[in-house]
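FAQ
Q: What does a multi-component entry look like?
A: The components come first, one per line:
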Amino acid sequence: MLEWLRRYRRAMLAGDISAGIVVAMMMIPQGMAYALVAGLPPVVGIYASILPSLLYALFGSSMTQSVGPMAIISLMTATALAPLASSGTGLYLVLAAQLALMSGAVLLACGLLRIGFLANFFSRPVMSGFTIGSAILIALAQVKVLLGGELPRFHLPSAAMGIASLLALLFARNYLGALLRKAGVRATAADIGVRLAPMLVVVAATALSVGFDLQAAGVATTGAVPAGLPGLNLATSSAHWRSLVQPALLIGFMTFLISMSAAQTLALKRQEKLNSNYELIGLGAANIGSALSGGFPVTGSISRSAVNFAAGANTPLASIITAALLATALVAPTGWLALLPLPALAATIVVAVLGMLELSTLRTAWRYDRGDATALLATAGGVLAMGVDAGVIIGVVLSMGTLIWRASRPHIAVLGRIAGTEHFRNIERYPAETRTDMLMLRIDANLFFGNVEAVNQRIEDELRSHPATRNLVLVMTAVSSIDTSALFGLSELNQSLKQHGIGLHLAEVKGPVMDRLKDSDFPAALNGEIFLSAAMAWDGISSAA
Amino acid sequence: MLEWLRRYRRAMLAGDISAGIVVAMMMIPQGMAYALVAGLPPVVGIYASILPSLLYALFGSSMTQSVGPMAIISLMTATALAPLASSGTGLYLVLAAQLALMSGAVLLACGLLRIGFLANFFSRPVMSGFTIGSAILIALAQVKVLLGGELPRFHLPSAAMGIASLLALLFARNYLGALLRKAGVRATAADIGVRLAPMLVVVAATALSVGFDLQAAGVATTGAVPAGLPGLNLATSSAHWRSLVQPALLIGFMTFLISMSAAQTLALKRQEKLNSNYELIGLGAANIGSALSGGFPVTGSISRSAVNFAAGANTPLASIITAALLATALVAPTGWLALLPLPALAATIVVAVLGMLELSTLRTAWRYDRGDATALLATAGGVLAMGVDAGVIIGVVLSMGTLIWRASRPHIAVLGRIAGTEHFRNIERYPAETRTDMLMLRIDANLFFGNVEAVNQRIEDELRSHPATRNLVLVMTAVSSIDTSALFGLSELNQSLKQHGIGLHLAEVKGPVMDRLKDSDFPAALNGEIFLSAAMAWDGISSAA
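Then the predicted structure of the entire assembly, as C-alpha cells:
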C-alpha cells in the first residue's frame, strides 16, 4: 500500500496526468449512464466515482485499475432495490448507499480474513455467460428510454435523438479509430479519441436539446441536480438492513470477481503482482466511500481500466487526479447536468454493453470443450430467464458442477513394462508387457472427495476384468495430494482387497504426499508395500503369492 | 434392474428370508420413532416403510440397501413443514406426503438426467460434521419426550420409563453382544440380537404401560391409529407447493447423499458395482411410493442396511419380504400400536442417533488435515446454530471452498537436471544443475479455472526471481487435463511472455491433453516449442537466445 508513492519518479507524472484527465472525461457520461441503470438520478453516478477512485488508489492492489460505477453491478443494485422502494424516491437513494456500505463491509471483511481465493469460484466460460446475459438484460431495459416509450409505441423526437446517438456511437466504435489513424493520429491517441465519443455525443445531444428546446417537445432529461457534494444518509429500519444482506453478499461477490478479472488482465500486461486480498480491501474501502458520498455499489471496470492504462497511467496517482477533476466538476455550476437528454445517455449504455457481448470465449469453448460451452450458454440463459441474482448462483453451481463432473471421471491407465527397460507405460498407447497375477494402475489425478468413489469403482471394474490379480499396484506419479476423504477411500479399498486376498501396493509416491500419509494409520494398515518405483514393485512382488 | 431375479438361486432364499424378518422387526420401532422425529403420528413411519422398500427393490442399484424412514431426513422434514402447518393436523400429513412426492420427483429426474455425480458435492469430513450436528439436534429435541416435560420440569412416571428404556438400550448396545457371544451365540446372530433390542424394549415398555395403566398416570402414548393401509391425499394450494420446492431440493439432495454413502459401504464389502443414476431412480421411486401411501421422505439407512446384509440378505428379495411382513402387521389388528409409550420410543431415537455421533472421522482428519477437520467442525456448528437446511448449504460451500482453496495453492517445482543423466527433478529435493537462461517448472496439478490464476501468478513470481530467464519450459507430466479457463490462462501467459521476449515451451504433454490442445489456436500461437521430453527441451533450447 502506497509503496508506489515511495518509488514515484518524475517521469511518471505526465502519463498519470493525461490518464487522469481522459478517464475523468470518460467517467462523467459513463457514471451518469450506469446510475440510470441502477434506477438512480444520473448525478449519483458522479458521486460514486470520486471517493471510490481515491480510496481504491490508497488501498487497492492494481496500479491502473479504475473503480466506479459498472453496468452489471448497477443492474444488480436495481434488482436488489426494486422490491424495497420505488426508483426516484428518497428511500431508494438511502437504500442504494446502504447496499454499497454493506457490500463494502463484506468485501473488507473477506480481505481481512484473507479469503481472496474465493475469486476462483467462477470459471471463465461461466463468467462470460453471466456477462453476456447481463448485457442483454441491460440493453433491453434501455430500449424504452432510447425510444421515449415502450414498443410498439415511441416518441418521435426522443427516438430520433436516441437512434442518432446510437448510430454516432456505433460509427465511432467501428470506424473512428481507423479514420483518426489514417489522418496521422498515433494509434494510442486514436484509441483514446474513440473512448471519448460518448462524452462528445452527450455534449452534442445536450446542445441540440437546449438549442431547439426539445425538452418542451417531450424529450426527457436528467432533471434537477443538487449542487455541491453529497453526504451520508443512513437511517432506515432493521427490516431494510436484513433484506439487503443477501443482495449485499451477491453484489460483493460479483464486485470482486469483475474487478479481479479486470485487474488480472492488466497485471499480466504489466507483469505485476496482484494480491487478491488487497484487492478485496481496496474494493471494500471504495464501496464504503461510495456509501459515504451517497453513492451506490461500485467496482473495477475493465473498459475504463484499459483506457487508464492506454492513456499512460503509471500509478494510482492517475485515479487520484480523476477524482479531483470529478469533484471540481461537481462544485462548479452544475445546472448543465440537469439538461442531458436521456435518449442519448441510453444510447451510450446500449453501445457500452454491446462491447460486453463478446463471443470469442463461446467460440473457443465450443471448439475446445463442449461442456464448458454448455455451461456458458446455460449461465447466459439463466440470467435472462431468472435474473442476475439467480445468475450468480447458477454460475457458481455450474462452475462447481463442471468441476465435480470432470472429477467423477478420473483418468486411470493400466500400465505395462516396455520390454527390457525399467519404463512403464499405458498399455493402450504403448506395446508393453503385463503380468496376469499383478495389475498396475496409474491414477492421473489428485485424490479428493470429488473423485474418490469414482477411483474406487474404476479399480473394482479393472479387478473384475483381471480376475487372476493377486496384487494391485497403484502408481502415484501424478498424485500430488490426497485429502481426508480420499484417505478413507484408500483405507476402505485396502480393507476390501484384504478380505478378497489381494495385496495393495503403492509405487512412486511423491515426497510431500508420503510425508502426509505418515500422519495417518494408512501405511501401517496397508496390506502390501510402498515401493520407490514401478520397476521395484514389478521385481519385488513375487508371482507365487 | 431385476437382473438379480434372473440369476436367483435357491441357496439365496434362506438368507433373504431371515434378513427380511430381522429388518421388519427392526423397522417397526425405528419407523415409528423417526415418524415422531418428523412430527408425524408413529404409524406413518410404517406406511413409509412398505411401498418404498418394495419399489427400491425393483428399481434401486444396491442389492442389500434397506430404504425407509431415517433420522436426518425426518429432521429435515420437520424443519420444512414447521412453518407451514401444525404437527398433528391433517394438513401436516398431506404436506409430508407432498414433500415425499416432490423430492421423489427431483430424485427421479436427476436419475433420468444421469447426474448422479452430484453425490460428490460433499466431502466426507463435511458429511460427518453434518451428521454429528443433526444427531445432536435430534437427540436434544427428544429429551422433553423422554422426560415427559421441558427441563427443569419432568413427569416422574414418563421420565422413569424413558430413562429405564435408555439404560436398557445402552446396555444392549454396549454389552449384549459380548454376553450373547459368551453364551455361545454365533457372532453374526449376536449382532442381530443387539439390533432387535429396540423392538424388545418397546414391547416391554408397552406391556408395563398397559399392565400398570401408566396412560392414566400421564405417560403419553402413540394414540389412535387408523386400521388398514392408507391412501394418497394431495390437494393443497399452489402456495404450499411452491414453498415446498426448496425443501424438496435439499431433502432430495441429502436423501441421495445418505443413501449413496450407505450403498457405497456395502458395495465395497460385496465388491459389487454401484450405479449412482440407478440409485437416484430407486430412491425417486421409493419416495413417490412413500407419498402414495401417505408417508414422508425416506432414504437408505446405513444402520438398517448393515443389519440386512449381516442377517444374510443376498438380493432385494429380502426387502420385498420385509415389505410384505410390515403390510401384514398393518392389516392385522393394530389396536396395540396405539399403546406404545412415547418415552420409550424417544429413548430408541436417542440411542439410535448416539450411533451417528461417530468421532473417528474427526480424529483422523485432525491428525491428517487440519483444514478438513475445521470444515467438519464448522459444518457441525452450522447445523446446530442455523438448522439442518442451512447446514446442507454450509456443507456444500465448505466442501467446494476447501477444494478451491487447495487449488489456489498448486504445487509447482523448479526442475534441474541430475548431472550426467536425462532425469529432471525438483531442485529443492535433489542436487540438480540448472541454467540461468532457462527456467524449467513442473506443474503438479490439472489446470482448471480454480488454479489458473494461481499458476500464472506463481510463474510470474519465479520469473521475477530468475530475471535472466530467456526461455520458460513447463513440464506437464502431472497435467491430465486443461479446461477452457486454463487454456485462456496459458494463452495470456504466452502473450505476456512474448511481449517480454521470453520463449514459452511445453514438455512431456500427455497424449490426451495434446489431442485436445490441437482443437485450439494455442499450439499455433505458442512462442516456443512443444518437446517430447524435458531432456529434449534442455538440449534443444540454445542458450544463445
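Q: Is there any commentary attached?
A: Sometimes. For this entry: Chain B is about 60% helix and 5% strand.
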